[in-house]
Amino acid sequence: RTQSLQVDSVQRWMDDLRHMTEVE
Amino acid sequence: RAAQGRTYGNLGNTYYLLGDFESAIAAHEKRLLIAKEFGDKSAERRAHCNLGNAHIFLGQFETAANHYKRTLQLARLLKDRAVEAQACYSLGNTYTLLQDYERAIDYHLKHLVIAQDLKDCVGEGRAYWSLGNAHTALGNHEQAMLFAEKHLEIAKRTGDKS
Predict the structure, then answer these.
(1) Stretch B73-92: mean pLDDT, rounded?
(2) d(CA B109, CA B82)
(3) What band does A1 get if pLDDT is binned at 50, 70 and 90?
(4) pLDDT value, residue A2
(5) Which residues of B touch A (CB under 8 A)?
């Protein structure tokens, strides 16, 4: 249960991160 | 040489979006080298951020953390609070992945303070959410509940139904 609670906020961050780049 | 640096950066970003994280890292490492040659701190910060992100998706969390720490140092040097907040948030999440919840809390708190200063409600909500989870992981259920309640309050205020 703790594992699944951790995952949701980190998962949201990773979902956003997947499409984020620092552009030139 | 400057154009070469920018091109490596663009190439790295393209590989990253394609999901080829190893090629992205190779390109961003070259971009980083050129940024350092020019003393371009802003470009160096961007390269470290992009490198950190790519390492996350390769599961190389310690390496990602090291890049994000450098990003944080450079953000402070450049006095860019928004970017400093982003670096703290990334470090908080990376340390959560590393299951170092105390460090995660430390960075999420730093992110929270900046989000509040910048009046970034979305960022503030993310910080509360992350802090609630990290405290739950440590068994600090009362603290976790406080942050979860703050998260709920701000989610209602911003109208974020999800």
Answers:
(1) 98
(2) 15
(3) very low
(4) 43
(5) 6, 9-10, 12-13, 16-17, 43, 45-47, 49-50, 53, 56-57, 89-90, 93, 96-97, 126, 129-130, 132-134, 136-137
The reply to whether residue B134 touches residue A6, judged by beta carbons under 8 angstroms, is yes
**C-beta atoms of A17 and B6 within 8 A:** no
Nearest chain B residue to A4 by CA: give it.
Answer: B133
CA of B33: how far to CAs of A10, A21, B38, B119, in Å? 30, 18, 9, 35
Partner-chain contact A22 B49, CB within 8 Å: yes
Which of A9, A17, A19 is the closest to B56 by Cβ? A17
pLDDT 10s digits, B32-41: 999 999 999 9
Q: Is residue A4 predicted with pLDDT exceeding 70?
A: no
Do B123 and B85 contact (CB within 8 A), yes or no?
Answer: yes
Residue type, B151: H
Q: What is the mean pLDDT of chain B?
A: 97
